[in-house]
Structures are given as C-alpha cells and as structure tokens.
Amino acid sequence: MRYFLIFILFLFNTYFISAQIFDVETIKFSGDNDKRINLVILSEGYQTAELPLFISDATSFSNNMFSQSPFLEYANYFNVYAIKVPSNESGADHPATATDTDETGITPVFVDTYFNATFDSHGQHRLLYYEIDENSANNTEVIINTVLANNFPTYDQALILVNSSEYGGSGGKFPMTYSGAWGANVAIHELGHSLFNLKDEYYPGDDLAGEAINMTQETDQNLVKWKNWLNINDIGIYQYTCLTGNCADWYKPHQNCIMEFIDKPFCSVCKEGIIEKIHDLVSPIDSYTPVSNTVSNSNFPLDFNLNLIKPNPNTLESSWTLNATNFATNVDAISLLETDLNVGSNNLTVVITDNTTLLNVTNHESIHVYTVTWTINNSSLGVKDIESDINNLSIIMYPNPSNSTANFKIESERDALLKVDITSLDGKKVKTVPISNYVTQQVDISNLSEGVYIANFYANNVLVASKKLVKI
C-alpha cells in the first residue's frame, strides 16, 4: 500500500496552498523504502523554534511503539520519518464547544497552526482532529496531501503529532495524537484503526460498528473469526458493554486490549491482525542472489543466497526444493554441485513462511507465503544461464471445520500452475483440486469420513503450504 499522490491533483489544488518543501528527518531506518512500511509523522502546533522538541517527541513515540508487541517483534519491517512543518503559533484550538462534557467557564483558545488542529471536534471534548467538523476537514486534507506529495509521496501511513499536553486524539485517514504522557499509546490505538483495520473494543456507536478482525455479531464458537484463539490468553466472545445503540448485538475477543483501554497491550487477536497486515504490505524477502543473469562456463559450486527481513526473535522458516525434491530447510544460503543438477532445465525454489506463535493459523482462514524460484539451464558444457522470479501468495481455506464443502483460494502475484491435494493423515491422497488464480474453488467433502485431513497447496508442483482440514 503506497499513497502515490497524483501530481495533477496537486496542481489542481495549488490555489489552496502553495508548494512547500520542509525538512524530513529519519527517526528509524530499517531498509529500502520500497520494501518497508513507511510511517511519516507530521508536526502540528510546533513553532520553528520548537521543531527540535517535535523531533524529540516523535522519537519518543517511535521508541514507545517499537517497545510494544507486535511492533517489537516486527520493528525491522518499518521505517519512521518526521516532516518538520512549522506553525505560526503553538498548540491546538480548544473552542469550549463540546457537547459530551460541561465546559462552562472554560476560556476558548484559538491558535494559528498549519493543520488547524482542534479539540471539541464533532462536539467531543477529547476528539483532537484537523478542523472542527468533517466539511472543514475535507479542505485541510488537501493541505495534508500537498505536504505529503511534496515531501514524502511514498508514505504508507501518516500520523499528525500535536504539540499539546492536553489528552486527545482521533483516527481516520490521518490519525492525530497529543504529545503528552499517553500520546504514544493514543497514536498506537489510532494506528490500529487507520493502518490495521481494527475496531474499538468499547462500543464505537452504531455508525462505526461492523464486522472486522476484532468485532463480530457471530457467537458460535465454531464459526467466530477468532475461533483459533478461544480460551487462549483470555480470548473469548465478550458482549460489548451497552451504553447506547445496538451494542448488545456485537462481540469482541478480549476485555483488556489497547483497542478499549489505552494503558493495555494489544490482545492476541489484534496482534495477529496487525501481523497479517504487515505480511500483506511487505515481503520478508529483502533481496536474493543471483538475480536473472547470463552465466558463461560457471564454476561449481553455484551459490544461492537470501537476505530476509527477520522478526526478532526470528520466526521465518525456509524450505528449499530442487526439481520438486526437498533439498534444505531453515538456511539463508545453499550451494549446488554439478552432480545435483540434471542436464537441461532445473528448478530451485525456496519457500518462506512465518512460524511466529503470534499467528495461530491452524484453523485460521489465510496464510502468506513468499517464494523465489531460479531456473537453471545446465548442459554438458556447464550452466548456460540462470533466471530468477519472486512470488507472493495468499492462501485461503474456509470454513474449517466443515461437514459439506470447503472453499480454497490462492492469490498469486505470478502466473503459476496451482492446485490443492487433500490427503488423510496416513498420507493417502483423497482429492486433487486444480485452482485458478484469484478464484474461489468450492469443493464437496461431504463423502469424506469425519476426521482430520491435510490440505497441501502447490504452485508449479512445489509444495508451498499445508493446512489441517477438519471434516465434521
């Protein structure tokens, strides 16, 4: 997900704000921007003389974020940058117009800031937002988009950090947080919404309620989307606490998650959702060698190497196959001898998966798989050439368990011959199902005996994933 802001759109809106270039400071650098999630922090309500304070505040936020799981484990997948946008005055507006609390006697405050940050937005005292309402916010988004287009167009998520000690924040396209004591946790909570599609675990209101990673109306233990986590780490099916609206119809996985209480960690279900989003956005394969090239009279052994973006601790697993035969596991480099190769075309494939315990995928719908394949053209005179290709796959299987049908879907970035073999635990193949890329294949399993089976997923005859399939 990269927000490439269209230059033509920028030109169209130049009447609103002239192009300005601001200093961009690196807060955290893990690797190439094209291969990382780029979080960009914008200053708001910091005057020019206060921009060093902004960098200090942004650094403190980054350090706090990457001290908390799962960002702690996946810190290598992120870059953090700060854009130093000066405001004419410090702080944020506080017009004392909130309707959710009594602000009688509070003197209204209005300050001249770049993104027009204000408390009391939409009538809520703690809602710190760019502008007082959505109509005005639409205009301010043009300003935000212009700043990003001019200074860091390839961002993944932008966050606005407000120079204020008063508690407040908001989510949305550009989450906003105050710079005070709990500001980092407010930002992390809001990023849970904006970047990772998590819902509040206090009732957010009927307009914001909806099926999501951590919110559902399903109460059946066999069907609820976080069924794989039930009774682990206090995960259950908990009804929302009712204050208004239809909250009694909705359920959450935990009772002490940061998506409800700002001083708590993420629950297991939210951690899993965040990690799966990270895997959606970034491949763990940073680079590899050799890339496609021409080899003339190459000397043996032939060396093949991976440079992986490793979680901490490292939970990535690798499986190497040569001509569809297992060759090596859990190594970042291998060497091939002349005797390992056939005369003609040879295929060497490495499959990378993440085996972190923060993902409980045994009964989960989807998994992510990453591959590199080298095609080695060998002759009696030596290796003539090596071609390489990289692929990312998402594999989905549902419902599980099932008594009648199972749905299989493989999303492959490259064209590939895709199939799934269903085998019994004793290794007997009971079904082979061809799969078309990006097409859900419904398979009748009603004639299978009750029990546990293994669904083996193949791309170009290479086993890329295995999942348990339960027939009930």
Automatic annotation (TrEMBL):
Gene3D superfamilies: Collagenase (Catalytic Domain). InterPro entries: MetalloPept_cat_dom_sf, Peptidase_M64_IgA, Secre_tail. Pfam families: Peptidase_M64, Por_Secre_tail. Residues 397-469 form the Secretion system C-terminal sorting domain. Keywords: Signal. This is M64 family metallopeptidase. It comes from Flavivirga jejuensis.
